[in-house]
Amino acid sequence: MTVAGPLACPKSMRWGPCGGVDRERRCEVDARPCPFVSGDAFTPPPPPQSDAPPSPFAALAKPWIVVDVRQPAGLDRPIAERWWRTTGASIAGCIGLVGEHAADAVTDAGTVGPERVIELLAGEGVSTIVTITGRGRTLREATHRAELLAGAGALAVHIVTGDHPMALGLAGPVDFGTESVPMVAAAARLGITTSVAESPTRPGDRLGRIALKAAAGASLLILNHGGEEHNVVDFARAVTRDHATLPVVAPIPLVGDLATAHRLQSLPGLDLPAGLLAAVRTAKYPLEAALEWCAGATSVLATSRVVSGVNLSGPAVEGSMAERLAATSRFVDTVRASWISGGVR
Asked: Residue 229: which residues within 8 A CB-CB, separation 6 or more?
């Protein structure tokens, strides 16, 4: 594992590479060679380390189904609160993953604060993980935010360095005041449960990055979309071989048509399965084809016995809010049924 000087990495990272480095080993921001994979780096200082607090995940029935939830833009508060309740009802029994919006550095809770989102989803039987990034925050600010979310009842805080806005086509400079490894360690020292992410198909020492995050005190690993499900299983098997105490949640793209596939593919650090893309590209009824693919992929993940659940991540389908929620609910039902049929309960 190597470390770049602050001028070499636009995110001022010390323990990289992030998920934004592309297959040609270029930075997501301006296509410069990533110092963490190009050799333009020097020996890092020892990473901060902490013991992981007792994990709340062990008490949850498997599969753990983590569903990325992003509120549509432009909703006033009363409508937004109804939307969160309806969303919670559609994914009851799952874990909602609420992220951060790169455009304005606020959470996807939008007009409803994340503490209130935790409360609204809990009322519908949904536990919540809330993301914190190092974008526009110091380590002290990030740690304080983690304390507030844990105090509000978050199951865990999902800690990532964060996408650079320029990688998403958004204007405006931004400072990265901290990154995932020290944020995890600071939260763990306060007894706050954290989950972390990794991008299996990106260049660099990905298993080494996971080792850093595990040593810092992470309790759960959520993988980014990493191509075909067999490749994801191979990566998860390598993780559990080296870090058996760090459970893995594998990705299932929440994609029911070609338009949503293209939207998801535009994000840095991920690769969608070719089988899914072929299914939604050629099928008369793309959503039905996507659900069939989801059933098969879930069965492969379940029978591997190296993952503890799945992360449904993506826009679901083009259409109204009601159509998107209905499609998401069908993906959840498909995962549950296919996991059981795979012989894992």
From this structure: 250, 273, 296, 297, 300, 301
